Amino acid sequence: NNLMTTMTMMQWRCGVVVALALLAASVAALEQFTPPKSDWSTFTVKTAHLTDHTPDGIDWLDTSDWAEWDGTVIDPSQHSKADFAKLICPSGDKVRGIRTLFYQHNPFSDPKNPTKAEVDHWHTLAINHVRAMVGYTGPEYEIKPTKCLHMRAL
Q: What is the model's pTM?
């Protein structure tokens, strides 16, 4: 019985070590594409009144009306521009399914102070989400950030 308890504890410890290693690898694997010289000094000043940079931390967004996306592809050719826009962003200031996507990935290790690399990664997830909504899901449609693209955006 003591051997079983010892084995169980060893398996648990091993599992914790593996989980921590995977977490560390995923955090370390994030690459910053936003140029280091980009000025983020106003990033925290302008958002000082927010709880954090999560969907629920943005005080002017009503959390009760976040629309989900059920995975059904939205064909733009089947809708007017106004109807299509309403399907993608039902309330005008929120992309359908984006809150769920955020919490599925929890892209910021510190939601009050996300790094540029974490924000770059989140933007990649969000853009690919919108592209998936219109059926652009193959590898040829997947957004992969580049330093050149981010430099041009400055």
A: 0.73
